[in-house]
Amino acid sequence: MPGITCGGQLYQCKEQESVLDCLTAHDVEIPSSCRSGICQTCLMRATKGKVPASAQSGLKNTLVAQNYFLACSCYPNVDLEVTLPAQGTIKFSAVVVELNPLSTEVVCLKLSLDKDLEYKAGQFINLFKDKNTSRPYSLASVPEIDEHLQLHVRKLPDGLVSQWVHGELKVGDVVEISAAAGDCFYVPDISNNNLLLMATGTGLAPLYGIIRDALLQGHKGGIKLYHGSNTAESIYFKEELVSLSNQHKNFIYKPCVSGNNVPKGFSAGRVNEVALNENQDLAGWSVFLCGHPEMVANAKRDSYLAGASMNNIYADPFVISARANT
Ligand SMILES: Cc1cc2nc3c(=O)[nH]c(=O)nc-3n(C[C@H](O)[C@H](O)[C@H](O)COP(=O)(O)OP(=O)(O)OC[C@H]3O[C@@H](n4cnc5c(N)ncnc54)[C@H](O)[C@@H]3O)c2cc1C
Ligand code: FES
User: Does residue 155 line the site of ligand 1, with CB under 6 A?
Assistant: First the structure.
């Protein structure tokens, strides 16, 4: 049973127990959110001992080199001495400059930063409600176009952070965010590829950034965006995206409704089914998938079966933990 030393205390890590589970079981406060190695909220550093490579999957090389790891994905096989990242090393202060409804369930939160945050459109940051409570939100803004960071936050019933954003946060408030992370963003190497982008709900946020980034960088292939929801009322940014498609011949926008009432101008069906039905040969395409984890998993499998290479499928499932720690 490997020992985990944290804050001078030794804890025994049981078989099949992650460092996160071991420490939180002993009331050590470790921020966490997705608990599945995606959001990077549970970032810790090993000051002694080697963590398994799987605990560093998705981390930047610079973090790997400093022995940072994800506590929720770390099942140690040797003794470790671990610590939380030093306060302030990866956090940024930001001022709320705008908070506007995009639909009945989604607000657009714009943040102004006190110092430069390096990011690419489509990556995510962690937004902190307090010291130990944070959630990942994707960046809809493009650094070269937008003055402020832009997040689209959907209100969840009893959701700790989303309810706070919708109900309590106001213009002028100062919040903390983490550095940007994630590998769902546009790269110039794919400028000749056709792009197929599928989103449900606020999965549109990263794709809105990625599309504008691609167009800014002079993307030469076609770009097709499918945005889906149960109802037409939940499809937001329709006007902006129709206008963008009028300005760019290579950009096609298809809003999809999976419920019964499908107004004119919308395609009927689940977003991944409509998109894959209309695009059956994806050899040589790049595919971007964001939003509901089930949609992302199905669309990933079906895109691969339609010929897209796994290296060309970029995905961010918006995993919502069943009330993770905080
Ligand atoms: C990479 C990534 C990017 C993301 N990007 C976005 C984005 O751009 N926009 C966006 O809106 N979201 C995004 N998400 C999801 C987001 O991070 C949060 O998970 C979401 O906002 C819910 O957080 P919350 O604090 O409001 O809800 P939580 O407090 O985490 O609750 C989650 C759900 O559990 C339910 N619940 C509450 N209490 C309990 C309980 N005791 N037991 C069981 N269930 C309970 C709540 O009703 C709620 O529905 C992203 C997620 C990931 C992983
Ligand atoms: S990566 Fe560990 S909680 Fe999300």
Answer: no
